[in-house]
Write a structure and sequence with these properties.
The complex is a heterodimer of chains A (487) and B (521). Helices cover 77% and strands 1% of the residues of chain A. Chain A has 487 residues and is mainly α. The radius of gyration of chain A is 21 Å and the shape is globular. The mean pLDDT of chain A is 87. Chain B has a domain of 251 residues. Chain B has 22 helices and two strands. The longest helix of chain B is centred in the middle third of the chain and has 32 residues. Chain B starts with a helix and ends with a helix. About 5% of the residues of chain B have low confidence. Chains A and B meet through helix 16, helix 17, helix 18 and helix 21 of A and helix 5, helix 6 and helix 7 of B.
């Protein structure tokens, strides 16, 4: 395919968020010697500024949607939705990071720079219309995430997390790349729209190869979204990674990977939907079941949230199984709701865990309701949302997903999924039990008072969760309009 | 603003406002909760006075679009059944505030806030006319009760709270599947619209489909009722809950289940309901007898009252599945009576507990000599619970038994055993607690009813007598609505099922006349 690499102004505007984030990330590293020690909070402020600018850029780019760089990138509602989502995730990650990094005495610019790079990669994934761009975005996002997972150098678990994440992640990326190669070999193009055209044309290539390619990409992306049976890395990485990073990993890269998932499987591989469908529903069912039942046994909060995030990936896969616009919109809505509630929950954990992240067990949350009533109330909102109690975003997310599944006549999958969510209620309730129904333990007694910044880090996701639960229309409209994708 | 919405919104506003009361003023939290709940009750009395008793249609309707896709409305309205259940909720909430006044000393602000939130959820469940909205309230009412049991309960409170939450949740997710399924078939959540479609024949279910949908709804409701064998959460929840929690749970929350069966299961899935009726009746009868037998051997007063609830609610379910006007009337009447009577019993047991700090029957004895007024109040509640004529439960039980007898006499015969057994366990408990030798401990710790306790218990006793003596104040709106429900259960019922009911139609007319005579007495 002849591609003209000379970028026009329109191309650049459509690439604006990535440009802003990369420039600011680099600038942060350059500024490090100037700002370090003297004003370490400035890194956080600058990153938040960069992300806000990035959101502005994404919204501005949306005013003139279309493809860029010869069809490799596409700015449409779908892309903009996910770009804004991952950048909001970034802001919500940085807010609790201030206090966290100060406690661990690890305030550096590279934390924030890596975060910005990772988000830039995710924005690219969201806007990718070409398997190569998907791959590049995936790598930018992943490599920054590997480093972030090992950010606390002196912590053995953090190192273990980074190594594990890196090894398994590279392995998964290789699978993905192999799938890309086979696709190119079979269809002769890596452009998603072109693949779709080729697959739905009269002289469609042999379905065996394409299905194989789809399966290989499914493995690669399944790893990124921590869907079973590719989930084994998640608990160790979430446990070992610094808590705000774990929060980020559970929301940002996951949302971007799902964006790619939806785009590749519904746009490019849409015509062979019946062939890959069994893969997805098996993974969905397995993720929900493995995630929820394993979470029942956990004593470490971060591990438990990791397993819960596996289960939630399963719910989103159910939406993918529906193979419909409603399903896509449901997945998009769910990822937004999930980002708010999960980051909020992790923020509470990061605050309670204290210096050196000593307090990570569920028991350590005992009596939080007495010592920190405001934080406990916020945590309650997040957990009720994770359970899926009405008037929270989590409930509407589940509702739309299972509605989409039922519309596509997947009654049994919906029933099993919802029963799964009843199982899940048990382990979330365990946390609530600890918070409200036990006397304060050592950890709750030592929790530092809330700083205004951290209050914001709790209130924003809580408001987001409630907003999505009471007025889901606005976000759902955005999702619904852009769910049609580029077909 | 619409009256009904006001009754719904006031507790919610009260809840939100009470969150702003500083923790160091517990007395303000109490007073605020009392003021809000009394104002809500007053508001619901105005509602009652404006309720048109001559029609079976929904009243005080409010229908505001909430979410456009899928179309969900904030649609509330009251009919003859939900009106009384709303009043029951608003009537009991201030009483619960009163009985918790001194009982709750820890985290006072949160306790009363949750009580108001609970009232909001309960009222909402009864008046929602949109299936989605109904589900929202159904789940919302779960959360405050979970905290009420889990934080302010007795020693095994956590186990009980979690069990309560999970049981209800497991049932309600099935209901959610059924609700979404219905939406995908009808493209609406509006209950009235779905019923219209059923009535006009636009919407029909295949037999298997209808059965599965019916079961999905029914299991969720049956857990809440609770119907044997899904009742095991109830004794735990009741025993461990604080007094106000037990009262709200027994008096109002269990009615969510029977209300759901009556209001949703029967009209939506009449064929499946009729087909399942014999099985459900058997379970109800087992519940009646089993609950009574288990209650008899309980050493713990609260557990005894809890099991008596299983038994009494069995009557309600039996009445509903008799598919007779009288059976349905009786079921609703029994729902209300049980709310008042069991609420009073739990409150009185709570009073005893506050004095003696024990729920074991064996720890008491001879209370009547030291606290005669308390004993008298307890006796009235006990007699009401047994079903003594001129007190409320008698009317409900009688109507249920009469209604059931019209179609299935054997059911009545079995269920009547429960009435006898209830006299056994209640009177035996009364005897052991209030008569006999007064232990020294009891003598020391047993002051008679205080002013606050009088204020809580007298309204309940007045209601017991009123409902027992003059049921006509309450029954006409109920009959209007149950007649409508009964009519709906005849729609789209295949000929085969219809025929089986026909011959009994005549007896129904005849006996109805007779009971009305009996009734007027």
């Amino acid at each position: 395919m002849p591609v003209n690499f000379g970028a026009t102004a329109t191309d650049l505007i459509r690439f604006l968020p990535e440009i802003i984030l990369t420039v600011m990330g680099t600038a942060l590293m350059v500024l490090d010697p100037v700002l370090h020690k003297r004003a370490s909070h400035a890194f956080g402020h600058l990153s938040i500024f960069a992300l806000l600018a990035g959101i502005g850029g994404a919204v501005y780019a949306q005013s003139n949607p279309g493809t860029a760089f010869g069809g490799m990138l596409v700015v449409d509602g779908f892309a903009t939705y996910f770009r804004v989502l991952v950048m909001v995730v970034g802001i919500l990650t940085i807010l609790p990071s201030y206090g966290f990094l100060a406690r661990q005495q690890a305030e550096t610019s590279e934390y924030h720079a890596l975060l910005l790079f990772s988000i830039a990669g995710q924005c690219m994934m969201a806007a990718a219309n070409d398997l190569i761009i998907v791959f590049i975005g995936l790598e930018i996002s992943s490599i920054s995430s590997y480093v972030l997972a090992g950010y606390l150098r002196d912590d053995k678990r953090s190192n273990e997390a980074a190594l594990k994440y890196f090894l398994l992640g590279s392995f998964a990326t290789a699978f993905f790349l192999y799938g890309v190669a086979i696709t190119y070999g079979t269809v002769g193009t890596v452009n998603l729209t072109a693949i779709r055209a080729a697959l739905s044309g009269a002289d469609a290539p042999p379905v065996v190869f394409i299905t194989l390619a789809a399966a290989l990409m499914f493995v690669g992306l399944g790893f990124k979204v921590s869907a079973a049976p590719f989930q084994v890395w998640a608990p160790d990485v979430y446990q070992g990674a610094p808590t705000p990073v774990a929060a980020f990993l559970s929301a940002g890269p996951k949302a971007a990977a799902f964006a790619v998932f939806l785009r590749i499987f519904l746009t490019a591989f849409g015509p062979i939907g019946a062939d890959w469908l069994p893969l997805v529903w098996m993974a969905a069912l397995l993720s929900m079941t493995v995630g929820n039942f394993a979470a029942l046994m956990q004593t470490n909060v971060k591990r438990m949230l990791a397993y819960s995030s596996i289960a939630h990936a399963g719910y989103v896969l159910v939406a993918l199984t529906a193979q419909s616009d409603t399903g896509t919109a449901a997945a998009m809505f769910y990822l937004a709701a999930y980002a708010f509630m999960n980051i909020g929950a992790f923020a509470v954990v990061s605050h309670v865990s204290g210096r050196g992240e000593r307090y990570q067990n569920i028991d350590d949350l005992a009596g939080l309701g007495r010592k920190q009533p405001m934080m406990a109330a916020m945590l309650t909102i997040f957990l009720l949302s994770l359970i899926g109690v009405p008037l929270t975003g989590g409930f509407f997310g589940k509702f739309y997903i299972f509605k989409a599944a039922l519309e596509s006549h997947l009654v049994w999958l919906a029933v099993l999924g919802l029963l799964n969510s009843a199982v899940a209620a048990y382990y979330y309730l365990r946390i609530l039990v600890m918070v409200y129904m036990h006397e304060p333990g050592e950890a709750a007694g030592q929790t530092e008072p809330l700083t205004p910044g951290f209050r914001l880090a709790l209130i924003l996701p809580a408001l987001g969760t409630l907003f999505l639960g009471i007025f889901p229309t606005w976000v759902l409209d955005c999702a619904g309009k852009s769910a049609t994708l580029v077909k | 603003m619409n009256l009904l919405t006001l009754v719904l919104i006031m507790p919610l506003v009260g809840f939100l406002a009470s969150l702003t009361i500083p923790r160091r003023f517990p007395q303000n939290s109490r007073a605020w909760a009392l003021a809000v709940s009394l104002a809500t009750f007053a508001q619901s009395l105005i509602l009652l006075s404006q309720f048109n008793r001559n029609t079976a249609s929904d009243q005080f309707t409010v229908d505001i679009p909430w979410i456009p896709t899928p179309e969900i409305h904030f649609h509330v309205a009251a009919d003859g059944i939900s009106l009384w259940l709303v009043l029951l909720s608003t009537f009991l909430t201030p009483i619960c505030v009163l009985i918790s006044w001194k009982h709750v000393q820890d985290r006072v602000k949160e306790f009363f806030a949750f009580l108001l939130l609970l009232e909001f959820g309960l009222v909402g469940v009864f008046i929602a006319q949109d299936l989605f909205l109904f589900y929202v309230f159904w789940e919302v009412s779960l959360v405050p009760m979970y905290f009420l049991i889990g934080i302010w309960g007795h020693s095994r409170r956590i186990y009980a709270a979690v069990k309560f939450f999970l049981y209800t949740m497991a049932g309600s997710v099935l209901m959610l599947v059924a609700i979404i399924y219905l939406y995908n078939r009808t493209a609406t959540f509006s209950y009235a619209a779905i019923l219209d479609m059923l009535a006009s024949g636009k919407l029909t279910f295949a037999p298997g489909e209808q059965m599965l949908l019916f079961l999905a709804f029914f299991v969720a409701f049956a857990i809440k009722v609770p119907l044997f064998p899904l009742h095991t959460w109830l004794p735990d929840a009741h025993v461990e809950a604080p007094t106000a929690g037990s009262v709200m749970l027994a008096s109002v929350m269990l009615k969510m289940g029977t209300f759901g069966i009556l209001h949703y299961c029967l009209p939506l899935f009449p064929v499946a309901a009729r087909r399942c009726a014999p099985w459900i009746a058997v379970l109800a009868i087992i519940g009646i007898i089993y609950g009574a037998l288990v209650a008899m051997v309980q050493p713990n007063m609260k557990k005894l009252v809890a099991y008596s609830s299983v038994s009494h609610l069995g009557f309600v379910v039996l009445g509903i599945f008799s598919f007779t006007q009288m059976g349905l009337d009786g079921a609703v009447y029994q729902m209300l009576s049980h709310g008042i009577t069991t609420g009073a019993l739990f409150a009185l047991v709570g009073f005893l507990y506050e004095r003696r700090h024990s729920l074991e029957i064996s720890e008491y004895g001879g209370v009547a000599t030291v606290a005669p007024w308390l004993s008298t109040a307890f006796l009235i509640a006990t007699l009401a619970s047994i079903g003594l004529p001129l007190l409320n439960n008698f009317v409900g039980e009688f109507l249920v038994l009469q209604g059931t007898a019209m179609t299935h006499f054997s059911w009545t015969a079995w269920a009547a055993i429960g009435v006898i057994l209830s006299a056994c366990y209640m009177l035996w408990m009364y005897q052991r607690v209030f008569y006999g030798v007064t232990a020294a401990d009891v003598k020391r710790h047993m002051p008679d009813l205080g002013l606050r306790e009088w204020a809580a218990i007298v309204p309940l006793i007045v209601m017991m007598v009123w409902m027992g003596v003059y049921s006509q104040s309450f029954l006409p709106p109920v009959s209007k609505t149950t007649a409508r429900v009964l009519e709906q259960t005849h729609i789209n019922v295949p000929e085969r099922v219809e025929l089986r009911e026909k011959p009994r139609e005549k007896t129904r007319e005849k006996t109805r006349g007779e009971t009305e005579v009996a009734h007027a007495r």
